[in-house]
Design brief:
The structure is a homodimer. In chain A, 40% of the residues lie in helices and 18% in strands. In chain A, strands 2-3-4-11-5-6-7 form a 7-stranded mixed sheet, with helices on both faces. The first copy, chain A, has a 3-stranded antiparallel sheet with strand order 9-8-10. A two-stranded antiparallel sheet of chain A has the order 1-12. In chain A, α1 crosses α2. Chain A is globular and about 55 Å long. Chain A is of the alpha+beta class. Chains A and B meet through β2, β3, β4, β6 and β7 of A and β2, β3, β4, β6 and β7 of B. Chains A, B: This is Delta(1)-pyrroline-2-carboxylate/Delta(1)-piperideine-2-carboxylate reductase. Chains A, B: GO terms for molecular function: delta1-piperideine-2-carboxylate reductase activity; protein homodimerization activity; pyrroline-2-carboxylate reductase activity.
Chain lengths: 341, 341
């Protein structure tokens, strides 16, 4: 297999091996077994799918956050059955993914019964990609939409200073003859993780992504990270969507807005302490032809007008490649992870 | 009042007078009394709020569509109570707004009981702004999100030819000390109505809005309308959102995709025959402080970072001005409307 590896000195790992390694790291830094399992699967899955900005790149941030005492790695989420279509979870200052895992069976049951259901997670830390939260619903034949707010780093369109988080929107829908249709888009012009990766590599960003500490446009990722800020994507429209994410993920969950938490007493803390909203719809309640057949028809037509790549296609290709060849990490990264385990 | 008019020869009308005039036009062109009332209030409300691209500017399009036999102006929507959170309406080849009006009481009842509810409208024609569909929910203390697909005129990002509609997303949320937070954004780089207005005025568009019939970028609105197409806003992200609107508004309702209807046998037809989805959430089910107080806090902070104008502010200012001074139409437009009545 090493002959097929992309980088000199890299070693391929199986998904299970990477999950086990990451689980050890989480456990060693004070999480419960359940939290370690959920976060390790999430993070290894992103790495497997080539979503490097949310893969093992995030592990040092998880570790420093756990060390800082900012997040409770042993939190037990409290699920509240509020109404026939409404589930709440108090993540109890823990991570959002275990809170979703705890509430998920009730959420799915309600969506199938009521036709639609909402999950409002509050008091939660989300430090991962958002698409892993919605994609599994599509594999179960459901349509899912999720939003999560983060931490002040985006200047609202028309404002002078940052207020919003990168505030992603993720969506997943089943289709008949292929992988689900899934996208996950930051409402910032660029994802924060991609700015961090560019800074680490010493690369310049495209124009229009952010401003420096004086509010001036810059292409230097370090200037954005050190006192600067990002811009929303698509001008006033992306800014309106980012505002909507603040309202849905924070105001509608009982969580913090992106500007409301203060981690200054927790050096090393990296995880935004906010909220997350998921809406799940059962398309079998819809009129007309089967939803998955209809979404398949849309994809067929999209290819018909010359679209070569759908959102999510790259991830599925990388996933297949990883299943065949293993997950490739460079020696330095692997050594770093092993030292943390 | 005439001294305050903006245009020479313009005459201010009261909202009631404009509604009555538009009702007469709809009735004369074959709608039922209920349909005439709903559409007249919708259209006059847009004109009152300064949303000119969806105000009386649309009347000739409504009239030519009704004359063409493309839409049923006397359609009686059929409301189906599918599940505790799911309402469907067959608009019966009529307009979407009377279908929403017919299903609205059941939708609100379900949202308040289940915490969230969805309304799936199919077999419907939407030729108006989308914000009037969501704003009233916010005045009732509810959060509302709606999407509607339209007609092929937008090239998916990365494709060669148009497929999607302008596919707007509208959102409304209550706030404690002020008008609701409301936005309505086309997922195209520019709304189709604004292209039509620019074409009529002979103005050029900003760059990046559309392509001509050969797929080449153009700033000429006529080149876009005559065989050209629009681009999505915000590149691949706006394109992904437009795709989501097709799935939610058509696949999830049982309606047509933007590319599926054929009006070639109905010269004069202007109204897309598609579907519409509304999601309504009751924020009183959420944990924590009252939602409207929280959204008010977000607005306060947005002003605090230098934002002067919120989405919807201009409409509310125009609405107040219209209430005081009346609605100003130029003589030619008024004469045209009177001739149609």
């Amino acid at each position: 297999m090493s002959a097929q590896s992309e980088h000199a000195g890299s070693r391929p790992l199986s998904l299970d091996a990477l999950v086990s390694l990451l689980e050890k790291i989480f456990l060693r830094h004070g999480t419960s077994a359940e939290v370690a399992r959920v976060l390790a699967e999430n993070c290894a899955g992103a790495e497997r799918d080539g979503a490097h900005s949310h893969g093992v790149f995030r592990i040092p941030g998880y570790v420093s956050t756990l060390k800082s005492g900012w997040v409770n790695g042993r939190a037990v989420p409290v699920v509240e059955d509020v109404a026939s279509g409404f589930v709440r979870v108090d993540a109890a200052n823990g991570f959002a993914q275990p809170a979703l895992a705890a509430a998920r069976p009730l959420l799915v049951e309600k969506a199938r019964s009521a036709g639609i259901a909402v999950l409002a997670i509050r008091n939660s830390h989300h430090f991962a990609a958002l698409w892993p939260d919605v994609e599994p619903f599509a594999y179960e034949g459901l349509v899912a939409l999720s939003v999560v707010n983060s931490m002040t780093c985006v200047v609202p369109h028309g404002a002078d200073r940052p207020l919003f988080g990168t505030n992603p929107i993720a969506f997943a829908a089943p289709r008949a003859a292929g992988e689900p249709i899934v996208f996950d888009l930051a409402t910032s012009a660029i994802a924060h993780g991609d700015v961090q990766i560019a800074a680490r590599k010493g690369e310049l960003l495209p124009p229009g992504m952010g401003v420096d500490s004086l509010g001036q446009p810059t292409r230097d990722p370090k200037a954005i990270l050190e006192g600067g800020a990002l811009l929303p994507f698509g001008g006033h429209k992306g800014s309106a969507l980012s505002m909507m994410v603040e309202l849905l993920a924070a105001a509608l969950t009982g969580g913090h807005f992106s500007f409301e938490f203060d981690w200054s007493n927790h050096p090393g803390a990296k995880t935004p302490w906010t909220g997350q909203l998921l809406i799940v719809i059962d398309p079998s309640k819809a009129a007309g032809q089967d939803f998955a057949e209809r979404s398949q028809e849309l994809v067929r037509q999209m290819h018909g007008v010359g679209l070569r790549r759908l959102p999510g296609d790259r991830r599925h290709r990388e996933r297949a490649k990883s299943a065949e060849q293993g997950i490739t990490l460079d020696e330095q990264t692997l050594a770093q992870l092993q030292a943390l385990a």
